[in-house]
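Notebook p. 47: complex prediction with 4'-deoxy-4'-aminopyridoxal-5'-phosphate.
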Amino acid sequence: YDDRDGKIWMDGTLVEWRDAKVHILTHALHYASSVFEGERCYNGKIFKSTEHSQRLLKSGELLDMPIPYTVEEINAAKDQVLAANGLTDAYVRAVAFRGAGDEMGVASLGNPVRLAIACWTWGAYYGDAKFKGAKLDIAKWKRPSPETIPTAAKAAGLYMICTMSKHAAMAKGCSDALFFDYRGYVAEATGANIFFVKGGEVHTPLPDAILNGITRQTVIGMLRAKGITVHERHIEAAELEGFEQCWLTGTAAEVTPVGQIGDYTFEVGALTREIATDYEKLVRA
Ligand code: PMP
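Predicted complex, structure tokens below:
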């Protein structure tokens, strides 16, 4: 991804894609002082751009790393980099991090908080699983307690076990891994939230140890607007057997049906298809 044409927004200016570099003593590289956003632009408009910019600022605050831009400035920078690359349908990646500076150690108050925004064309996150239903492995790692790490932040440090779990899943022919949390409750996939259907009602984990995804919140709103009951609650591992349908939500994943988790299978049913179609219409509206 590094040696190609294009522009990347970095600290207030557009730079050539292949020149968008950082120093090896960048604090974030050593200590994970990094937060990010994944967004999608549809037909020239970023879906929930402001919500993503707000979450980025919030993630920075949670890591004691105030990002020196306003929501409006970040929104404008995203639009600027999309236009500079001539993209109207793209994935947008904003990343804020502690750079190199006065100090090189755990403390980093003297190091600047930097912001970069890149964008590129990105199709279906789970490929043809979008139609067939994704197969999920069960991660051996657990989502940590909010007393261990700020789980509400979209922070790079929370993704170390995601990469490891996703690699393990792919080695078994799965599209992704499902995490349980530190208490043993169903949590989330490595880059997406999870929903289940049983008897016409929907169940999804409480966002008390997972990322409260912007897609998750959108889909809950869509379901409730249709008069469908949504239970946000703690879901036990043993309940997986009784659910009829399952899907994942995320900016990259959009609404992707799940056909299998470990040994449990799910039908790619009517409600799953309806929500996936409705979401597609909504983001392009
Ligand atoms: N959980 C994790 C761990 C994620 O990385 C993502 C993707 N940002 C999500 C959930 C879904 O969040 P969103 O809908 O805001 O993209």
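Notes: Helices lie at 27-31, 49-62, 71-84, 129-132, 160-171, 214-225, 270-284. The two ends are 31 Å apart (CA to CA).
Next step: compare against the earlier run before touching the bench.
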